[in-house]
Amino acid sequence: xxxxxxxxxxxxxxxxxxxxxxxxxxxxxxxxxxxxxxxxxxxxxxxxxxxxxxxxxxxxxxxxxxxxxxxxxxxxxxxxxxxxxxxxxxxxxxxxxxxxxxxxxxxxxxxxxxxxxxxxxxxxxxxxxxxxxxxxxxxxxxxxxxxxxxxxxxxxxxxxxxxxxxxxxxxxxxxxxxxxxxxxxxxxxxxxxxxxxxxxxxxxxxxxxxxxxxxxxxxxxxxxxxxxxxxxxxxxxxxxxxxxxxxxxxxxxxxxxxxxxxxxxxxxxxxxxxxxxxxxxxxxxxxxxxxxxxxxxxxxxxxxxxxxxxxxxxxxxxxxxxxxxxxxxxxxxxxxxxxxxxxxxx
Length: 346
Hints:
This protein has 13 helices and 12 strands. By secondary structure, the protein is α/β, with parallel strands linked by helices. It folds into 3 domains: 6-61, 434 Repressor (Amino-terminal Domain) (Orthogonal Bundle), CATH 1.10.260.40; 73-170 and 303-330, Rossmann fold, CATH 3.40.50; 172-300, 3-Layer(aba) Sandwich (Rossmann fold). The chain has a 6-stranded parallel β-sheet, sandwiched between helices. α2 packs across α3, α2 packs across α4 and α6 crosses α13 (303-319).
């Protein structure tokens, strides 16, 4: 009886090797390697024999092994908190599709607020020699960024502001100021802001710009916070805002999920009519914002546009490793729906 392969004996997966392709094609192992290496010298006759043998055997090139030997892989990491939320899901999906289309392998590393978890996440990508890391979460600290820079790994930060990495920045300031002007144009003097205790750079920038511009326009602002930047956080913050502060006419929520929580609490728990009694503006324009239950006026983060810009920056960085940091800024256009009352006519 023929001897069995050890991989089958212990239940391990067995991959077709380049040696088996070489034996079937009647060529050397190096000829197989050259056939599947872009730009390598190999005769057309040899290429045809190797390609035919590989197809018949089902051989696939081990790109991970090649990358590790070259001290560079096709892996691109995405560090993300709250990966289950609507906008983050859209963002990860859009980036992943473009990475795959470019011949790369996206690797998602979920993370949280803890410094230990953040550093462990990035250390994982460094051990696997990821070509670059895309930091979608606002949570990791400067120490996290320093780890990448000490190892020479390109880092693209989305919605952050520290020196060193390449950046895709969001024009949070213009969106927050626009929300204030929308409320002021309708004669509102007492307005609110709903945010969370997460304290990511994007959220802090939105809050600070909103507070500053409201003060410049002489508006009174009340801020309430949920624990997280999600539906439950919006519901909790709404319960505080609407119970403690009478006469609030307009509320800007730092994302759509919090706006949904606010709207449902206001309508179903307090009987408040939106927008007749209370105007609400969100940020993200997730698909649910267009649903009939919400019809939320919001600022749009375009996940596809962000992904395309991230890929542009990635390609530019990999082609010019020593170039100065690349900074790109994206706008957040206003999407008008039904949660802000019309301006009263003269």
